[in-house]
């Protein structure tokens, strides 16, 4: 059993001692006092904390039925290594990622069958329109970019995603303060009170997405989220003709780390939102335990656009369900440095004004 002298001050970390005068635990270094009953309850809550337990129980995907892949082929890009799945009637002469030629490798084998698919809602013209809307209002974009950039290739690609479901039981410990300031005619005073705050609760996560393709930029895929899983359908090869499908090369097991990171960050943000009425709040420790964890395999619709401007290639991704478009854009050096100069002038003017303010007054 822990003795009281083993407790540490949540403010400075010093050893706490029981002070019979105030009937509370007191820190000899910073004079903080802590109620014994409150500390006992806090200690009980801390016993629940420990290392994260974020293990998953069920795998994703299923095996293809016999004959189901007879009309599907795998195309390989010799330049970037991307592997693309398409039906035998789909033209796949160029890689949607690097715009280089692809060659047919052979029949599909050794790949899991998706559980779900979100069908494309945007056609090619709608994807181009979404791309041009993305260019509007960009402050540092060269004025001629929209007119002179050439869309080398636009391809509709079903991107493989692992979707993770789970229930989360979490404990989060915070160090918080409340500050009170006042003054009298002689002095100013500041009083800071320190608190150990605990939050415990449960959250349910559905369809946390992790991109299963190493050739696809993860930040690009996260940036075009969210996808509305309510429009997902049970997978059928009937959704593939006319489209490409990226072949996953990162399995569900290898994607768990990214899923755990996203789940932990979201949990910490949700719990932080419940801690109010403090001057400052600093998270100190988080313990997460997963239950009912399972993964699913789905194909999500993405339009990939390759454009060329001034001898450089730019890649954009458009959510084939919502039209949300992201991608790197060139920067007009003149516009950038012009804006930088304006900021410098404003700062200089402000400094000049402050410097001569006493004389103006």
Number of helical segments with 4 or more residues: 7
Please report which band the strand proportion falls in: under 5%, 5-15%, 15-25%, 25-35%, 35-45% or over 45%. Answer: 35-45%
The low-pLDDT segments are 1-5, 332-361
Order of helices and strands: EEEHEEEEHHEEHEEHEEEHH
Overall tally of structural domains: 3
Largest sheet: 11 strands, mixed
Rg over CA atoms, rounded to whole Å, is 29 Å
Question: How far apart lie the N and C ends?
Answer: 69 Å
Could you explain how this protein is built, in words?
With 361 residues, the protein is of the alpha+beta class. It folds into three domains: 1-47, no CATH class; 50-330, no CATH class; 333-361. 22% of the residues lie in helices and 36% in strands. It is built from seven helices and 14 strands. It has helices spanning 36-46, 124-135, 145-148, 218-223, 252-272, 333-355, 357-360; strands at residues 17-19, 24-26, 33-34, 72-77, 83-87, 102-107, 116-117, 150-183, 188-211, 233-234, 244-246, 280-309, 312-319, 325-327. The strands form two sheets. Strands 4, 5, 6, 7, 8, 9, 10, 11, 12, 13 and 14 form an eleven-stranded mixed sheet that branches. The protein has a three-stranded antiparallel sheet with strand order 1-2-3. Strand 2 (24-26) and strand 3 form a beta hairpin. It is elongated, with a radius of gyration of 29 Å. It starts with 16 loop residues before the first strand and ends with a helix. Mean pLDDT is 78; it is low at 1-5 and 332-361.
């Amino acid at each position: 059993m822990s003795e009281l002298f083993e407790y540490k001050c949540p403010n400075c970390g010093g050893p706490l001692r029981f002070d019979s005068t105030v009937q509370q635990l007191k820190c000899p270094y910073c004079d903080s006092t802590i109620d014994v009953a409150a500390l006992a309850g806090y200690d009980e809550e801390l016993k629940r904390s420990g290392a994260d337990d974020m293990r998953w129980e069920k795998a994703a995907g299923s095996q293809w039925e016999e004959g189901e892949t007879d009309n599907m082929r795998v195309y390989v890009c010799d330049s970037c290594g991307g592997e693309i799945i398409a039906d035998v009637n789909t033209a796949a002469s160029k890689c949607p990622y690097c715009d280089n030629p692809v060659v047919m490798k052979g029949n599909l084998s050794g790949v899991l069958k998706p559980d779900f698919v979100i069908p494309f809602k945007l056609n090619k013209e709608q994807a181009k329109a979404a791309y041009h809307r993305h260019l509007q209002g960009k402050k540092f974009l060269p004025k001629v970019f929209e007119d002179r950039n050439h869309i080398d290739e636009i391809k509709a690609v079903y991107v493989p995603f692992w979707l993770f479901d789970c229930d989360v039981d979490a404990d989060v410990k915070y160090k918080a303060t409340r500050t009170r300031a006042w003054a009298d005619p002689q002095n100013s005073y500041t009083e800071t009170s320190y608190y150990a705050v605990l939050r415990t609760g449960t959250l349910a996560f559905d369809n946390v997405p992790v991109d299963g393709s190493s050739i696809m930029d993860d930040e690009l895929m996260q940036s075009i989220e969210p996808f509305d899983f309510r429009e997902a359908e049970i997978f059928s090869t009937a959704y593939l003709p006319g489209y490409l499908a990226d072949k996953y090369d990162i399995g569900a097991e290898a994607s768990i780390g990214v899923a755990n990171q996203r789940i932990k960050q979201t949990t910490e943000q949700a719990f932080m939102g419940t801690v109010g009425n403090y001057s400052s709040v600093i998270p100190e420790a988080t313990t997460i335990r997963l239950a009912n964890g399972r993964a699913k395999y789905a194909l999500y619709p993405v339009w990939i656009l390759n454009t060329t401007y001034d001898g450089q290639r730019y890649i954009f991704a458009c959510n084939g369900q919502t039209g949300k478009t992201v991608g790197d854009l060139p920067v007009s050096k003149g516009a950038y440095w012009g804006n930088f100069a304006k900021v410098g002038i404003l700062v200089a003017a402000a400094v000049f004004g402050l410097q001569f303010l006493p004389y103006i007054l």
